[in-house]
Amino acid sequence: MLTTNDYQLLPEVTGALQVPTAAKPPLGRAEKTAGVIAPVHFSLVVPTYNESRNIERIVALLSQRLDAVLPDRYEIVVVDDNSPDGTWQLAQALLVHYPCLRVMRRQEERGLSTAVIRGWQAARGDVLGVIDGDLQHPPEVLEQLLSAIEQGADLALASRNADGGGVSTWSAARRFLSRGAQLLGLVLLPGVLSRVSDPMSGYFLVRRSAIAGRSLHPLGYKILLEVLGRGAIDRITEVGYVFQEREAGESKVTWKQYRDYIRHLVRLRVSLGRLSRFRQALDFPIGRFIRFGFVGLSGLVVDMGLLYLLHGTLGFGLTRSAIVAAELAIINNFVWNDRWTFSDLTQQQQKRHQVIKRFIKFNLICLMGLILKVLLLNVLFNGLHLNPYVANFLAIAAVTLWNFWINLKLSWRVTQVK
After folding, report:
1. How many CA atoms lie within 13 A of 314 on its CB side?
2. Are 154 and 140 in contact (CB under 8 A)?
3. Does the global pTM surpass 0.85?
């Protein structure tokens, strides 16, 4: 007889936030023994954090509903952010009783939106969904959402603002904030948010084919914004539901969620606008290059400041002072580029030898860039007889592009061998 220990957790998914076209991971020992052999049609992700008081009930209710409409053709994927209250352990214990349940414990990342995508990346269904683990989303609505997908919808949304929907006993202040956030979204992204009545909903189903292969960049809790903004969503169906008050556990709605929502709107506005289309036509990461440029400016400040301190104040020799200042500026630039400009590319390259390797490459590329700058400056000034300041500016611009592109392809490449 199988015990809890025979039921392994799903491996934590890392890397790019991109849902594969088809994902059919091999069945584990426990799943094979339990008889989960039918093709999975529907994968429902339940992101959790400190939901130990709700997890058993939500799994039971979802299984009961889905057993009735999709027997042996669904899976419930609980993705827990390493909850201090042991939610993931309680979910793992339920694997013995629920053969269609799968559990992932995330220890490297945090956040509801990324948890949903990681669950979708591990999912096997052609239809993907998300529901909160706090019982505020009524499981009985799932049947209507699945029916909408079967009738041809690319996205089936549970909406608090559609016919039959509501928000239970929300206070006037919370209603005002919710409507204000929606209005702001309509102003910034009218072409995206106007397509649905409840763009802040966290309860919906979507066809895998509508989002597969798309690079997703969620921020905060509102994953639906990414799906609407970046997915190939044609037909949308809405089903009204009443948002329930939490029965157990604590609410996770804070001012940080509203702040992240605004940042997410702005990010989508920029990425879906003309600048993004220009960038895609050039196949050039403009946003990352801008960050690289700002880091370069900070390095210039460090270089000039240290040169003044070492040579002008402490009286060290000019050449020695310039070398020390330049190297410390390079260190400054590397740290900021590693933690900001290329942070998404360093998530799987955190070992000490990998960081040292990146730093050495960065130093060498910057040295080559310095040599290139001197050569360009001489060609532009002595060969083309340009104004010395114009020549210097053009040389700096060219070298900045050189440093960025070569570092992107060599120092921070994502194909590192571990």
Report:
1. 11
2. no
3. no
